[in-house]
Structures are given as C-alpha cells and as structure tokens.
Write a structure and sequence with these properties.
Length: 265
C-alpha cells in the first residue's frame, strides 16, 4: 500500500542512518554500509520502498510524466510544500520535503563532481538540510489512495523496509526524534506540558493516534462479523446491530454502582 509517511521515513533513513555516497555512475548501489546514488535514483528507490508505482521513471527528466500518470499531481511552487512532496527541477535536481522546514536529498560527491567512491566521505553527499528553492519547477504531491492512517496494527508490523524495521518501529523512532528535537527548541512545551494522568502532550497525541487506529480496526472487524451473521440468518445487518445494542443496554441497566465520598479535613 503506497504511503507518504513511509516515503519520508525511507528518505531520512538513506540520507542520515545509511552510509550513502553520491555518484551518477554507480547510482543504484543501495548498500547501507557503503553505497552510492544520485538525486533521482534515491527518490525513485524510496518511492518503491514506500509502495509507490514509479513506472519507467529512471531520472529527473521522466519522473514527472511517470508519477503524474500514477496518482501524483504537479503543484505550483508557492514556497510552501507539504510533508511528502517531491521537490522537482525537471532538468537538474529532485528532493523530498520531510516537513518542519527540512528536505532530504542526494547532493554531490566528495570530489564536488558527479562521480565518487561508495559511502558518504564528507557527511554531506546525502543529507537532510533546511528547505531551499533550487529553484523547483513544481511540487509533485500524492493524490491517490492509501495512507498510514488506513493501516491496521498488524499491517504496520508486517510492512518492513530494507533496514529490517517495521513501520511501527519506525514510528516509535520518529517519536523519539521528535522528542529530542522538541527538547532543543521552543516546542519543549510538548514535553513539559502534562495532563492529569501525568503524560505529556507529545505522549498523549502519539497514544491517541494509535488508539484510534486500533479502534478503527476493531469496528471494521465487528461490522464484518455482523454482516456475516446477517447473511447466515437471512436478516438485515442493522436489525442484528440493534439487538446487540439493546442487550448491552439491558445489562448496563442492571448494574448497581455505589459511590461514597468523604470530605477531606
């Protein structure tokens, strides 16, 4: 299933965690221990890892045509990209916007040329940097189906990248990175602001996000069960759902809850 968040995670992985150099002559050497890529092979590779169909795309010049035929749209460069946008100069360069004012890219070899040795010799051959305007001819933005929000917990565990981490682990790692970043700047309030349960805002948001995902999975399963039962007994699924609701309500009505309190002195 294509996933913009996975695209962002894979770009960050290959540009920060993996040891990737820059070379247009060795551009498909995706070895995390010492490989090479160029700007377009990096984006195409990460798109494929994230489940996107890249068609016959091989370089910046044919990237737009292949992606716009497969769910992406060209958006005017207004200087305000969205996380997951592909930043494209059709003739010369491509990168991915990560959000938060940052982009990921393959830049230049250790020789300041288009050819270099495997592995990042300078720490900047592949990198995450502040957003800048190359200039970009457009932003390619995903407009198709499929997103992490539609994935069940089981699917999150099953989907894995080349580093062996599943999406759940990747999200937890991203959470840790956000926490570290928040502690360094003004958004420290995300961590220091706490609710009555003792959790900070960041923890609460992450937990709520996954509670909602789990609830969606449970409701989908329940709906499928009711539909199957309805077909078996030859009745309307809504009628069965109503009966279940009435039975639950009847049990709740029978409960007796005693509450006592004393004034603190």
């Amino acid at each position: 299933m294509p996933n913009v968040n996975t695209l962002i995670e894979r770009m960050r992985y290959w540009c920060v965690d993996a040891n990737m150099g820059y070379s247009q002559y060795d551009r498909w050497n995706f070895n995390p221990n010492g490989g090479n890529c160029d700007c377009s092979s990096l984006v195409i590779h990460c798109l494929q890892e994230a489940g996107f169909d890249t068609g016959d795309a091989t370089y910046t010049g044919n990237l737009s045509a292949n992606l716009t035929a497969r769910g992406w749209v060209r958006v005017v460069n207004d200087g305000d990209p969205q996380a997951g946008d592909i930043l494209l100069n059709d003739a010369d360069h491509v990168a991915v916007y990560l959000g938060g004012g940052m982009l990921a890219q393959a830049s230049i070899s250790e020789n300041n040329s288009i050819a270099g040795n495997a592995g990042d010799q300078t720490g900047w051959e592949t990198n995450v940097s502040a957003y800048y305007n190359y200039p970009w001819n457009c932003f390619l933005r995903w407009n198709g189906a499929g997103n992490e929000d539609d994935m069940t917990i089981d699917e999150l565990y099953a989907a894995q990248g080349n580093d062996g981490r599943n999406l759940w682990d990747s999200v937890i790692q991203t959470r840790s990175e956000l926490r570290d970043r928040a502690s360094e700047g003004a958004s420290n309030a995300l961590i220091t602001t706490k609710g009555n349960d003792g959790r900070n805002v960041l923890d609460s948001v992450i937990q709520a996000r996954w509670d909602i995902a789990e609830l969606k999975t449970m409701l989908t399963a329940q709906a499928a069960t009711i539909e199957t039962l309805a077909k078996a007994v030859g009745t309307n699924p809504a009628d069965i759902a109503k009966v279940v609701e009435q039975q639950v309500k009847a049990k709740l009505d029978k409960l007796q809850i005693n509450v006592s309190a004393s004034e603190k002195k």
